[in-house]
């Protein structure tokens, strides 16, 4: 008899314990998703309602996306080409689109940029990297405005940065 009562108790616990008792979290700020939204109408003058419906809210412009800060790095660089050296030696600020540890990769990237209308040069950094530069300037303001213009015109080059010749 004790065995039958014991097995009945175990069976009752097993069947009763399988039922999930989880409930969706309730908050005063959330509504029950199964509940349909309520629509209320206010009885009144149909003409006043029509006039009210035709009044449009002024459209507000979407907030402008905050500009991404321009990364700046100060390095000693040398030119890989004598022509590039004579044309850009007096400049201090260089707009960099790519950086490579392998010169052949930098040359291939330079060719891609030439096909897109840029006039890139390759700089060899003191860190050993080959920097692919698309513009150089004597004035930092001009260089920063070029970085902003590249970011706006060519979104795929949003990681463009500024190198300052040490």
UniProtKB/TrEMBL annotation:
Biased composition (Basic and acidic residues): 46-84
Domain SPOR intervals: 87-164
Organism superkingdom: Bacteria
Compositional bias of kind Polar residues: 23-39
SUPFAM superfamilies: Sporulation related repeat
Gene3D superfamilies the UniProt entry points to: Sporulation related repeat (3.30.70.1070)
Region ranges (Disordered): 23-84
MF annotations from Gene Ontology: peptidoglycan binding
Name of this chain's protein: Sporulation related domain-containing protein
